[in-house]
Structure formats: C-alpha cells, structure tokens
Design goal:
Layout (H helix, E strand, L loop, with lengths): L10 E7 L6 E2 L3 H7 L3 E5 L2 E4 L3 E2 L5 E8 L14 E5 L25
Antiparallel strand pairs: 1-6, 1-7, 2-5, 3-4, 3-6
C-alpha cells in the first residue's frame, strides 16, 4: 500500500493477550463504523480491513493500526486483554477531533 494514509509514520502498534484460539475483540463496532474507509490493520506484513474481531492462533496478537483518523471515539471501548500500545511516536493525531469514550470499560492484561 503506497497510499499516505497507510504509511508507517501514521500508525500505532497495539498488543493483545489472546485467551482462546477463536480470536479476540480488538476494536469497538462504533469505531469500526466511523473509520472503516480510513484505515487498515497490518498483521504479519498483510493488510486487513478494519474490523472489531480478529482471529489468530497466536498467544499475543500484535497488530499495527494504520490510517488517517479524525474520530477515535469508542476505539477500545469494551475491549479486553489489551496489553499495551507501543510506538506512539509514529501515530499522527493532528487531525483527531473526537476521543470521547476511547478507553471506556477496557480490560487490560498485564504480563
């Protein structure tokens, strides 16, 4: 993907602990609906449409969210097993205008 929205500069690395082999809830549906056409998920050098659930057999899911955001509301709302958000220096939030309820009812997991 050579589109500027999907450059490595405009991205953030997110890690989750996966409890089962069926996948994990990674983003709230409201966030997905608001940003589906503005961003992608990068996982193991493959790109995926933005979605709320992700299937993996890995114990730790490390994804890179890439895109151009203006609305980050409800991004992690109701998500579970969020370990950490790293590499925030590459995440450009200059155009973000809404972060309401971004971390409401988030269940974190500590290694």
């Amino acid at each position: 993907m050579n589109h500027p929205f999907f450059s490595e500069y405009n991205s953030i690395c997110i890690n989750y602990k996966v409890d089962t082999n069926t996948g994990i809830y990674i983003f709230n549906e409201k966030f997905v609906r608001n940003n589906k056409d503005k961003c992608k998920i990068k996982y193991k050098n493959n790109y995926y449409e933005l979605k709320s659930n992700f299937e993996t057999l890995d114990e730790i899911l490390e994804i890179r969210l890439m895109g151009h955001f203006t609305n980050m509301s409800y991004m992690f709302a109701d998500c579970c097993n969020l370990i950490f958000i790293s590499d925030k220096s590459k995440f450009n939030t200059d155009h973000v205008t809404n972060i309401s309820y971004m971390f409401i009812i988030v269940q974190t997991y500590y290694l």
